[in-house]
Amino acid sequence: MNASGGKVEYEPVIGLEIHVQLSTRTKMFCGCALSWGDPPNTHTCPTCLGLPGALPVVNERAIHYGIMIGLALECEIAERSLFHRKNYFYPDLPKGYQISQYDVPLCRGGRLGDVRIHRVHLEEDAAKLNHLGTSGRIHGSDRSWVDFNRGGTPLVEIVTEPDIRSPEQAREWLILLRTTLRQLGVSDVDMSQGSLRCDANVSIRPAGSTALGTKTELKNMNSFAFLESGVKAEIERQKRLLEEGEPVVQETLHFDPRTGNLTPLRSKEEAHDYRYFPEPDLVPLMTSEETLAAARADMPRELPAERASRFEHELGLRADTARLFAFRAELGDYFERALAAAAQNGRDGGPGLEPAELSNWIAPLVERIGSDTDPAGSNVTPESLAVLASMVKAKEISRDAAREVLTLLVHEGGNPRVIVEREGLSAITAEEDGLAELVDRAIAADPAAADQVRGGNRKAIGPLVGYVMRETKGRADGGEVTRLILERLG
Ligand code: ADP
Ligand code: MG
Ligand code: ZN
After folding, report:
1. Which atom of ligand 1 is nearest to the CA of 160?
2. DSSP secondary structure letters along 62-98
């Protein structure tokens, strides 16, 4: 409660730190292969095991990928950047330090969609700890096992500015980032496998304030849904604290998606001084013109954020539809194929179909095949969706009938025209006597409504139109029926 007795409105402020495992052939500083699912500790060498005297050599492919990511995020690429040692003690780190970039990263500044990028830097991943409880005994004991295969995997860390304002935006933005990275081809970007990992920094402040509140950090949100629900839960927790007059304490929290609980994490970095110092075994990383040119040459023609902008501004789609199609590339690809088919229909004498009109048929399709399914793998070809949309546009079938046809297409595939014919779903038009007669019957069945319409009450037409639609099982065109009824009633 504030002084006036009303509730204070709070605005969430969110910044993300994202780790991306690069899909190079070898590790960041040695020649060991990256491997998935190989037996533990089969891809190690003196360098990635941290044996004395072993020297790191920078993986050029990782630099190349790092620069591509920087370019995609519109960052400034440093001509010269530095590797540091980040010192801490933990069993997953055999050297006792991680080689990372610190005060002079490879990329600075930038933007993706509506979120600014603070920095992008290169580092190496730690080894993987496998914790075994009593149920998972190996060699007859409860222990933690270290698999050094992952140790030394090239990582890129992306740090955003605190520009995100809601849990939903955090989720949508991370999907945009994933689609962008996937298109660059630099990573598997699979959250469940850990090749894309996200920590969320969360604070709240009174709406209208520009000062930043105290933040907490949610570690390792390992799915898009957990990111959204974890941030949501943390915002609620912070609101409750402030409303009770308690301060938010800066700490690292663990979110349990099953219970929705947030508990303080005894983190390896809590209250740690990493004693950063420049890595003495590596020279500064210089970005040559040739390196930059090679990265530019490898960039895709159109990244998802640009595609969303083209869908919205050139094709006239609604902003949220444009983002959905661009961020879920398979939807965008399907839509563009349907659009090409519609354009061909148009050239062949069919009705011209606006991209926005066609786009309205993607959601009903996705609804029928399941939201995680690629429509390209469904029974409905982009061509048949375009035909269906154009039949509605040409008033050959009603919208309701088209939805029914779509359901049939999803189940059996085939040609929408054939289905319409077979099911007798083609629209009843004014020229057919049937419709005029039905209009007369509707008026006779509800004289009171007819009188009201005659008296100038347009809204009273609803039941009359409804009668005709019911009698035709939705095959009549609503607009046409309305027009006919008004004509009859003067
Ligand atoms: P730290 O030094 O604790 O790591 P940084 O300033 O490096 O903090 O920021 C880390 C991340 O936290 C960035 O993504 C940044 O945008 C975000 N962040 C910083 N301050 C806040 C805040 N008050 N509320 C929410 N997020 C924040
Ligand atoms: Mg940080
Ligand atoms: Zn190695």
Report:
1. 14
2. HHHHHHHHHHHTTPEEPSEE--EEEE---TT-TTSEE
Asked whether the beta carbons of 432 and 393 are under 8 A apart, the reply is no
**Domains in the chain, CATH or no CATH each:** 10-297 (no CATH), 304-423 (no CATH), 435-488 (1.10.10)
Rounded-to-integer distance, Cα 23 and Cα 3, Å: 56
Atom 7 of ligand 1, residue of closest alpha carbon? 159
> CA-to-CA distance for 7 and 10, rounded, in angstroms?
9
Pocket flag, ligand 1, residue 58 (CB < 6 Å)? no
User: How far apart are alpha carbons 153 and 470 in whole angstroms?
Assistant: 64
CA dihedral 72, 76, 78, 79 (to 10 degrees): 100
- For ligand 1, atom 6, the nearest C-alpha belongs to 161
Question: Where residue 476 falls among pLDDT bands split at 50, 70, 90?
Answer: confident
More confident residue, 346 or 79: 79
Burial of 22 (0-12, 13-18, 19+ CB in 10 A): buried
Rounded Cα gap, residues 26 and 30, in angstroms: 7
Whether residue 4 has pLDDT greater than 80: no
| 90 close to 113: Cβ distance less than 8 angstroms | no
Give distance in angstroms: CA of 35 to centre of ligand 3. Answer: 12
pLDDT tens track for 191-234? 999 999 999 999 999 999 999 999 999 998 889 999 999 999 99
pLDDT of residue 1: 46
Average pLDDT over residues 307-327: 96
Decide: 213 in ligand 1 pocket, CB within 6 A: yes
Total-model pTM: 0.83
For 19, the token pair is: 């780790």
Q: In the 8-state DSSP scheme, what is residue 377?
A: G
Percent of the chain with pLDDT over 70: 94
Site to probe by mutation for ligand 1, drawn from 201, 219, 251 as the one with most ligand atoms within 8 Å of Cβ, is 201
CA distance 440 to 438: 5
Ligand 1 near 160 CB (within 6 A) = yes
pLDDT of residue 436: 83
CA distances from 144 to 129, 130, 131, 490 (A): 6, 5, 4, 85
Contact (Cβ atoms closer than 8 angstroms) between residue 100 and residue 133: no
CA–CA distance, 106 with 65 (Å, rounded to integer):
11
DSSP for 20-68, written as a single string: EE---SB-SSS-PBP-SSPPTT-S--TTTTT-TT------HHHHHHHHH
Tell which wins on pLDDT, 288 or 351: 288
Would you state the structure tokens that stand for residue 380, as one six-digit string? 């409905």
Q: What pLDDT shows up at residue 6?
A: 62
